[in-house]
Write a structure and sequence with these properties.
About 60% of the residues lie in helices and about 0% in strands. It is built from 13 helices and no strands.
Length: about 220
């Protein structure tokens, strides 16, 4: 028996608020209801390791590396805990497909989790977004974007706008028909009006970018 898929939160309040923006109103109409489904049961440690795996590679490649890592841990599917990672030879992590940089970052995440810098779910719930970002960017290979992904997709924080994300900026460019993407500071200033629902705005802009990409691929066939 498999676990049922998590039910997406009700983002209808966010959708009503974002429709006040004429550009986002059109995007919402095209995309439909928001299906952003955070995974609050996932520990921040695991979310950070998974984020490192996904950095600068295709999603399928990251998934393959993570499957190999899980296969090293005989824990009935449980994600390898920090002490297990630290006990692994470096060659074992490299054998999963992780680059040297990713291997160093994953080991540092594990070390910081054991040392208490990486908070548990319960501890993270007591910290605001900026406090978590400031705390976690001290980890090797973890930048602001990585923590923002943790905030949105694991902790379910509703008001995070990852202005450095290519997909978010591309989504706005596509939605407005502009020739070039906004600079991060420009998007941050514009997105201030979307508070307190900037995570949901980002989700819609990601979907707009994805839809435009699929449309271009279809037209090329």
């Amino acid at each position: 028996m498999t676990d049922a898929a998590p039910t997406p939160p009700d983002w209808s309040k966010a959708e009503r608020a974002l429709k006040r923006d004429p550009v986002l109103k059109t995007v919402l109409k095209q995309i439909g209801p928001c299906t952003l489904t955070p995974l609050p049961e996932r520990e921040p440690y695991e979310a950070l390791v998974r984020a490192i795996a996904h950095q600068q590679v295709h999603g399928n490649a990251a998934a393959a590396m993570l499957r190999r890592l899980l296969a090293l841990h005989e824990g009935e599917g449980a994600f390898p805990p920090p002490r297990f990672i630290l006990a692994l030879p470096v060659e074992a992590l490299r054998g999963c497909g992780f680059s040297q940089a990713k291997t160093i970052a994953i080991r540092d995440i594990a070390e910081k989790a054991v040392g208490g810098l990486v908070p548990t779910r319960e501890e993270a719930a007591r910290l605001d977004d900026e406090a978590l970002i400031e705390r976690l960017v001290a980890i090797r290979g973890v930048g602001r974007w990585t923590v923002e992904m943790l905030l949105i997709f694991t902790l379910g924080r509703p008001d995070v706008l990852p202005v450095d994300d290519f997909g978010v900026r591309e989504g706005w460019r596509v939605a407005t028909g502009a020739d070039a993407q906004l600079k991060p500071k420009e998007l941050a200033a514009l997105g201030a009006a979307w508070a307190p629902w900037r995570s949901i705005a980002a989700w819609y802009l990601w979907r707009a970018a994805d839809a435009a990409k699929k449309s271009r691929l279809s037209a090329a066939v």
